[in-house]
Write a structure and sequence with these properties.
The protein is built from six helices and ten strands, in the order ααααααββββββββββ. The chain has 207 residues and is α+β, with helices and mostly antiparallel strands. The strands form two sheets. The protein has a six-stranded antiparallel beta sheet. Strands 4-9-6-7 form a four-stranded antiparallel beta sheet. It comes from Methylobacterium cerastii.
């Protein structure tokens, strides 16, 4: 979860987590690439993603990182916009099943983040469904300066620690905090926790 320069998923939990993606992503990449008459080599050149990696993604033989997804979405951005604008009078409704939702797992294996945000907004807005076992810790490195994270608890109890300051929230409560410094989210108490996490990247710098 971070800005373009540092790439999403920079936190240690993200680096150790596995993004479980279904074949839908590969099918979408392939459909858009062919619709705009791009060869694998051309998409590789435009995105900076190796041709072999793109081929594996299209064949659902690899689980791409968020950084790779971001590069491909940027390379195909114009194509996506043209597809959505093909008929402005038609409503746009996109559905993702639970099986199609990427999952990130913390280093201790006790916190899971389902990526329910749209891949096209990764550079500036990310949101996740958080589920955690008691004692689970999501330890993250700093994001881009000025970034803000919001954690809305629906079940259980969580605490956030930043710079030695700890604040807790229970069901129905929300914590908002700068995430441009080392920070940790913990599931406290004896029951599992659930929350929605929203990360606003490139927020106004707060002195």
């Amino acid at each position: 979860m971070q800005e373009q320069a540092e790439r999403p998923g920079r936190g240690r939990d993200m680096l150790n987590g596995a993004a479980v993606l279904s074949g839908q992503l590969g099918k979408t990449i392939q459909r858009l690439r062919k619709a705009y008459n791009l060869s694998l080599s051309e998409l590789a050149e435009q995105s900076g993603v190796a041709k072999s990696i793109i081929s594996q993604i299209e064949r659902n033989e690899t689980n791409p990182t968020l950084a790779t997804i971001w590069r491909l979405s940027q390379a195909l951005d114009v194509s996506i916009e043209r597809v959505l604008a093909a008929n402005d009078e038609e409503p746009f409704i996109e559905k993702s099943s639970r099986a199609d939702t990427p999952i990130l797992v913390s280093e201790d294996g006790k916190v899971r983040l389902a990526i329910i945000g749209w891949v096209k907004t990764i550079e500036w807005l990310q949101w996740y469904e958080v589920s955690a076992d008691p004692g689970g810790v999501l330890d993250s490195d700093p994001h881009q300066r000025g970034s803000v994270e919001s954690l809305s608890v629906s079940e259980g109890c969580f605490e956030v620690e930043i710079g030695g300051v700890v604040q807790r929230a229970r069901a129905g409560e929300t914590l908002r905090y700068r995430c441009d410094r080392q920070h940790a989210v913990r599931c406290t108490g004896d029951v599992p926790g659930r929350a929605t996490m929203v990360v606003i990247m490139k927020a106004a710098v707060m002195e």
